[in-house]
């Protein structure tokens, strides 16, 4: 039986950090077994916020693909492609923009939140309001059955379903309604306890060198109530502990939990242990990154091949769309 299809994208606004790994990529990696996966670089989406400084988009497009492969996404199993290389996305976006009521976009919670959160950028643009319409084009182009995303993106998948429903009703029933496949893993926080994000300068990147990881871990904010070494700590309120749960063996995690609660272990030691384990996990990934970066041709080929596979499907979908829209 043909595997079901999933589509997901990532905005190229910098290299991958642990927030991406635990918030998306570990899930993307395991989905490869059961689904035919289309993973792409959403560079046009990045343009909605980075239009003044576009260098970062090109730079990080290759970097992210390298990082994907390094953490175990497999270009032999999944299709990796670059959104702007498949011009059909722009055409489908345009057609969808004609049938999408403004009110659907204006009430989108992610839209409202981003406008206030990223107040240093002028996001009152036509393109930014239409962000989810482009996303709908990305997803429906490949007739995806599912879309793996974090909670913040689920309104966009819901909008995609509404746009598909409306298109199907006006023209012809050609688009399946995709399901949201919510990422199961908990969000990990940045070193300042806010959501891990490049913009907040609180991220640990998978390509960070060992010394940088050590420094960032040393700077991590722990349980805010544990002011002195002799104060008992609360692991459940400590981001360092969350990292231990991900990177340290179960037995040691138990010891740290008790040691923290009865103040027999100090935060400095606790962090050193965590940093060592994190570095152990990252070392083979960094090694892979180094190898891939030394071989630019390999990445070029992977992108070309993926683009070709994606384009073939996109061409077919667009022929069908033009036919039913009669234009
Ligand atoms: N909007 C997504 C984000 O900001 C990226 C994205 C673009 C996407 N197109 C997509 C995700 C299609 C899933 C499916 O993270
Ligand atoms: Fe956090 Fe470890 Fe300090 Fe406890 S001992 S507060 S878990 S860093």
What does this molecule look like?
By secondary structure, the protein is mostly helical. The chain has 2 domains: about 5-190 and about 295-325, Rossmann fold, CATH 3.40.50.620; about 210-290, Tyrosyl-Transfer RNA Synthetase, CATH 1.10.240. The protein has helices at about 20-35, 45-50, 55-70, 90-100, 100-105, 110-115, 125-130, 130-140, 155-170, 210-220, 240-245, 250-260, 265-295, 295-325, and strands at about 5-10, 35-40, 80, 145-150, 180. The strands form 2 sheets. It has a 3-stranded parallel sheet. A two-stranded parallel ribbon has the order 4-5. Helix 4 packs across helix 8 (about 130-140), helix 8 (about 130-140) crosses helix 9 and helix 10 runs antiparallel to helix 13 (about 265-295). The chain is globular, with a radius of gyration of 22 Å. The structure holds tryptophan and iron/sulfur cluster.
CATH uppermost class of the largest domain = Alpha Beta
As for the number of domains, it is: 2
The biggest beta sheet, please? 3 strands, parallel
* Approximate helicity band: 55-70%
CATH superfamily of the largest domain: HUPs
Strands side by side in the biggest sheet: 1-2-3
Q: Work out the helix count.
A: 14
Order of helices and strands: EHEHHEHHHHHEHEHHHHH
Concise overview:
The chain is mainly α. It has 14 helices and 5 strands.
């Amino acid at each position: 039986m043909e595997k079901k299809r999933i589509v997901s994208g990532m905005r190229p606004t910098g290299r991958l950090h642990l927030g991406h790994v635990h918030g998306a990529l570990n899930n993307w990696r395991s989905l490869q077994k059961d689904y035919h996966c289309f993973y792409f670089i959403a560079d046009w989406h990045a343009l909605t916020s980075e239009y003044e400084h576009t260098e970062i988009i090109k730079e990080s497009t290759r970097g992210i693909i390298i990082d994907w492969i390094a953490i175990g996404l497999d270009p032999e199993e999944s299709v990796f492609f670059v959104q702007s290389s498949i011009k059909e996305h722009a055409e489908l976006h345009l057609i969808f923009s004609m049938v999408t009521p403004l009110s659907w976009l204006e009430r989108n919670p992610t839209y409202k939140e981003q406008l206030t959160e990223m107040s240093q950028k002028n996001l009152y643009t036509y393109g930014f309001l239409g962000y989810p319409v482009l996303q709908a084009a990305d997803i429906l182009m490949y007739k995806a059955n599912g879309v793996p995303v974090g909670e913040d993106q689920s309104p966009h998948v819901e909008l995609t379903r509404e746009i598909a429903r409306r298109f199907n009703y006006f023209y012809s029933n050609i688009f399946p309604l995709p399901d949201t496949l919510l990422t199961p893993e908990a969000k990990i926080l940045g070193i300042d306890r806010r959501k891990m994000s490049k913009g907040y300068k609180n991220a640990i990147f998978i390509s960070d060198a060992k010394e940088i990881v050590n420094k960032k871990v040393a700077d991590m904010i722990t349980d805010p109530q544990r002011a002195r070494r002799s104060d008992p700590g609360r692991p459940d309120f400590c981001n360092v502990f969350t990292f231990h749960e991900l990177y340290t063996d179960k037995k040691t995690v138990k010891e740290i939990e008790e040691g923290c609660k009865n103040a027999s272990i100090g935060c400095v030691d606790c962090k050193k242990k965590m940093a060592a384990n994190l570095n152990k996990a990252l070392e083979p990934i960094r090694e892979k990154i180094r190898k891939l970066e030394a071989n630019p041709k390999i990445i070029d080929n992977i992108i070309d091949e993926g683009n070709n596979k994606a384009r073939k499907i996109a061409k077919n979908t667009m022929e069908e769309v033009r036919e039913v829209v009669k234009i």
